[in-house]
Q: What sequence folds into this?
């Protein structure tokens, strides 16, 4: 924890939007699982939740985690197992909140991200400062597909400013966006 707030990350596969604005469930990718876990490990995130209501997706994630944490993958590359040991699986956001409350004794402050930009955003600098000076758990939520639904956004107490690039193009992979968000909030300068 390094003298800062407990920080958790959730990658939501449901409820998220597709490119037409419809609420959908997206598929888990093993690339997201491994790369985001490595970013979480690098920046000291307490746990990385993969949220999907689909049993087959959670089974796939368990197989990948077992391979790298306890199987042949552990001997091949122990660093990947160290990162993947942070992964927890959940059916829904409520399950994540319950687990964090069990860990910390408090429900987490919910923080949403969006490439679109949201009303009343908090800056990376302000949230990073809050994390350094708080003991309250925070859950940073990343969306798959075309982003988190309004229902999820409305539940959050904080809306993080979007990542700004060189112009108005803003369609990063969730892996890249997560790494940038974690670096800006938890990285050392």
A:
């Amino acid at each position: 924890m390094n003298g800062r707030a407990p920080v958790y990350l959730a990658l939501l596969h449901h409820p998220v939007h597709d490119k037409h604005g419809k609420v959908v469930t997206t598929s888990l990718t093993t690339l997201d699982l491994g790369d985001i876990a490595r970013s979480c490990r690098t920046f000291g995130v307490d746990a990385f939740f993969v949220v999907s209501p689909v049993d087959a997706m959670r089974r796939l994630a368990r197989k990948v985690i077992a391979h790298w944490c306890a199987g042949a993958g552990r001997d091949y590359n122990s660093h990947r197992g160290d990162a993947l040991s942070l992964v927890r699986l959940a059916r829904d956001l409520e399950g994540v909140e319950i687990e964090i409350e069990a860990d910390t004794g408090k429900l987490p402050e919910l923080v949403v991200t969006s490439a679109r930009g949201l009303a009343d955003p908090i800056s990376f600098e302000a949230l990073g400062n809050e994390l350094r000076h708080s003991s309250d758990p925070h859950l940073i939520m990343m969306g798959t597909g075309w982003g988190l639904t309004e229902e999820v956004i409305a539940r959050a107490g904080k809306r993080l400013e979007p990542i700004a690039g060189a112009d108005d193009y803003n369609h990063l992979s969730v892996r890249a966006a997560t790494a940038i968000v974690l670096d800006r909030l938890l990285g050392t300068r």
